[in-house]
Amino acid sequence: MTAVSDDQRALFGQSTAVFASLTGPSHVVESANPAYAATFGAEQSPAALAADLDAAFRTGEARTARDIRIVLGAGPLEREAFFDFTYEPRLDPDGVVTGIHLIGVETTQVKHAQRLMAEHRVLLEQIARQAPLAEVLDGMARKIEDLAPQEVLVSVLLADPDGLHLRHGAAPSLPDFYNEAIDGIATGDGVGSCGTAAHRREPVIVTDITTDPFWADFKDLAGRAGLAACWSTPILARDGSLLGTFAMYHHTPRVPQDSDLALAQIFAGTAALAIERHHIEQAKTVAEAHAASARDELTKAVLAEQKLRAEAEERAAAAAELAAQMRTAAAAQATAPHPERCQLGGKAGCPETAEIKLADSWGDAAWGCPAHVEEVIINVRSVFIASEELGGLATYLNR
């Protein structure tokens, strides 16, 4: 069998049969097995069964009843219990009903377990629907607290990615000051129940916080919160990495039963499913964001490359046009009187042959070689290729 099946079997527990032979219309206990005496007492039948017993006694017909609620014990020991009963009339030789054989099986643990498993299925459906992690964990904690046979306060802490600290996940019934105080608690041996369980990767059961050395640094905090026992189970991923802890607190010192441990194991596994699904969705969101960012950057790069290409093409076209204009000007000005050498070389001078005449908007003019003429035209906006027909300013204004 798998571990989960074992845990489920532990939740349902072992049912104990009770038997009593009742006599007379008052249903006085004539004989009973020890389980009946321990549960209901040795003298009288439970008042909750009076109507069914009366009917069986009056009609002489066998009857059955399911999920009969009976309150057992008193004061702090009072508890709600459920039973399935069979009522078998006892007949004398003349066929007259003289009493009832009462057989009962307690179904309390089964009923609670069935309700818990139904809620467990609801949680699994929430996880499958990708409900928010906080909603799933808070709902899980509240359901366990509502359905557990004895009072319990549930807490879920989430591990940091490095596994060195635990953060608040859900704890609807613990005081706010307590949740704030343990938010970010370190994992380590002897760091309360949860820090130790996270460090050891195994359940840690503290039945009395006031005397346990694991709680030496947190005993006063637990006292202010009214906490006396804490059982913590690590929440582990499928690869064994730490996801968090699942804790069950109690207001009085308490030793867990097998059903308590099974409950913790089942819901720690459920929390693991929810947390792993959350991590997967987070990673998916981050990956999608990175992919979208990469697509945006690629689009920007393509647009920038297209812009650069267009600008390069424009520059190439302009350069070609300028080169053509310079060739035309050089041919047209070849017969005009002009200095032998380029006048645009600055202080260093230029030994190249002067071929093209330039002018500016103020009417100044100079002759230069093709290289210097091109450089000046590109870098000085007011300069242009002169012509013999127009003066400097007129040519600038009418070009």
TrEMBL record:
Record-annotated membrane-spanning stretches: none
Ranges of residues in domain GAF: 128-285
Keywords: Coiled coil
Keyword Coiled coil: yes
Any Pfam family the entry gives: GAF_2
UniProt keyword Magnesium present: no
Entries under InterPro entries matching the protein: GAF (IPR003018), GAF-like_dom_sf (IPR029016)
Coiled coil feature spans: 295-329
Listed name of the protein: GAF domain-containing protein
Species for this entry: Actinoplanes palleronii
